[in-house]
Amino acid sequence: MIEIKNLYFGYEGNTILKDISLTIKEAEFVAIIGANGTGKTTLIRHLNALLEPTAGEVVVDGLDTRQHPTTVREKVGMLFQNPEDQLIHSIVEEDVAFGLENQGVPPAEIQGRVKGVLERLNIKHLAKRNVNELSFGQKQLTALAGVLVMRPKYIVFDEPATMLDPKNRKAIMEQIAELNRKEKITILLVTNNLGDIKENVQRVILLNEGRIFFDGPPKQLSEDTLKEADMDG
């Protein structure tokens, strides 16, 4: 379970997040939406200790993110909007193995886990390819493989489909939904595409001016509420 308690965050005199309190339960599929500049990315970067609260706290499975950042990052995986921000090695299978190697996982286990996750995402044929030769969609799946191979309990997706064409957008969204449905991984999806929340998502958190403006099932999110938060329904 992820607990956010009275979270405030600011820098250079600007308060970005204001008194955010919420609980994310295990196996939930939660979408975080809001107009640009409302603090969505700032919020999710607190979940795996990329940012520290100015005030308040973020607790993951009983661990304060400020006190246990390394353990929290093992529990909470993150996929950024641009996969090139997290691809490190030039060869696909080497990039996917990078996190496990850093943890000192035995080579035989690394090989098996990398093979398994590449098969899981239907990109086994890319294992020996140079990442610079991949399409954007293939790079996104490679980055996702690097997250999944670590076996996180929670995965945060920061607008993962924004830069994809419709075909690859559908593919990545189906993969995300399957992770939640079949493997019971808790999913937090940042998106401004309202179509993404119509299926599979169980709960929507709408941010407006750094505060929670709505928190509930997608079917209860009205067009009037979206307009009040400067979003189009």
* Order of the strands making up the biggest sheet: 6-7-8-3-9-10
Structural class determined from secondary elements: alpha/beta
Using the CA coordinates, give the radius of gyration. 18 Å
The helix-strand sequence is EEEHEEHEHHHEHEEEH
Number of helices: 7
Averaged pLDDT: 95
The profile of the biggest β sheet is:
6 strands, mixed
N-to-C span: 31 Å
Summarize the topology:
Layout: E1 2-11, E2 14-24, E3 29-33, H1 40-44, E4 55-60, E5 63-64, H2 69-75, E6 76-79, H3 92-102, H4 107-120, H5 136-148, E7 154-158, H6 166-183, E8 186-190, E9 203-208, E10 211-216, H7 223-228
Parallel strand pairs: 3-8, 3-9, 6-7, 7-8
Antiparallel strand pairs: 1-2, 1-4, 4-5, 9-10
Main attributes of the structure:
alpha/beta, 6-stranded mixed β-sheet, 4-stranded antiparallel β-sheet, 10 strands, 233 residues
